Structures are given as structure tokens and as C-alpha cells.
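User: Structure please.
Assistant: Input sequence and predicted structure:
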Amino acid sequence: MNRKELEPDSSPQAAYGAYLRSLREARGWTQDDLAVRMEYSSVHISAVETGRKPPTLRFSRSADRVFGIEGSTDSFECRFRELRHGSLLEGFPQFVDYEGRAAEIRLYEVGVIPGLLQTPEYAALLADSAVQRGAITTEQAQERVALVAERQAALVRTPPPLVFVVLDESCIRRPIGEPAVMDAQLARLVEFAALPNTMVQVAPFEMGLRRPFNLPIAVLTMADRSLMSYAESAQRGHLERDNRFVLPMLTAYHQLQAEAPSQTESVAVINQLRKGTP
């Protein structure tokens, strides 16, 4: 039987396949043996090992169960998420995981509508523009759009999280795509603001120095009341769990909310913009 030599350093997907083979062979199992245990075909196992087929979350969790490494830092699920989120900034995949379990989510965004509020069309245009700039591949763009949908789906839970969003005025005035795309996106903001567990405010340009943040930030409150924040620049993201740094950011966020117009006033501005009124 021909055995294909693997090159785990050639790509994250190849490294995943090599890791799968190494654990299988360490237990003396053939691909057929593993296929029976994982409830996949041996052809599928071979394709993942050799990097010809990308792993899925379901496949990764099945492998973790079979090898007894569920929840560990060396799990296939961890490797899958690293593989899938390879185009994302440092710290962002971990932030998304916490975001999906947070009791309260506070966001401040500049320039673009935040992912939790994006329509699929708006998200796709942002991802496509990154492809055109050569920043990411087409496959990574598809993954980014899929991640937006996954993050939004994570909000539909019981009980739902409280979500507070403050948008810099540039978010609603910067045109993305055709007018119909922007109109649908602005309509989405209005719908989001009407939910019982959300608050949307627009920070106008004239706030000037009364605006405490210059870059997008997020502050999460978990179910146990622990706090964490996430902030990013053009090249890096940072997830912070130390209260010495998170609490001042939370205080600044409360100050931002107090200074910004109310949700009623903000929604009125969005609706005026939809009608073409300055």
C-alpha cells in the first residue's frame, strides 16, 4: 500500500492531517480502524490526513472523542478553529468564543457596521474588498462571512445577552456597495434597536474630544460577572482579562453612552439618512 509522505509545515491544513495520522499510528490503528470509530469512510480519513480535504467542526469533535482529547489545548477542535480563523487578527477567535457566552456585550465601532449587526450582503462586500486588496483569499472571505452569521446566531439564546452598541457617525454615513445594500443595512440597525435586549446609539462627529475612544473596542461581561475587553488596530488584536485595564475601559464606555444621543434620537437620525435627509 502506497504511503504518501506528509509535509506538516507546508500549510495549517497539512499540519492538521499530519497530527491526525500521528495519533492514529501511535495507537496502531489503520485508516479503516479509525473510520469505524469516527463513523466516517476510510477514504474521508485519508483525504483529511493528506490535506486533500479540509476538516470540519463535526469531524474534529468526532476525532477528539475517539482520541480522548476533548477540551484539551491539543484538541482537533482547537486546531480546526485556528485553521479556520487563520485570516483573523490575534485574539479575535478567542473573543468570539467568549462573545457567544457573554451576558452583556458592549461595542463601539468606527467606519463600518459591527459584525453582529451586519446584513449578509454588507458583510460579503467588506470581505470581497479585502480579497481585491490582496489581504485575504477568496476562501478566507467566505469564512469571514460565515463567521458573521455564526456570531449573530449565537445571540439567539435563552436568556439572550444584553447588547449595547455605540456607532461612530462614520459607520452609518460611509457608503458600502449600492444604495440598496446600505438601505437594507440601515433598516437592520433600526430593527436591531427595537429588540428588548439591545441599545443602539450613534455618536455624532461633533462630539469631538468628548469621545473617549479612537479605535473600535468591545467589553464583555460574562455570566459570572467577570470582565474582558477586546481592541484592535489595523494589524493586531488584543484580548484583555486583567480588571486593572478592563475596568477603566468599561467606565469610559459608560461615559460614551452618557454623552451620545439617546437611542430614540439615534434611530431618528438613521431613518432620516434612509430617506435621503442630511
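The radius of gyration is 22 Å.
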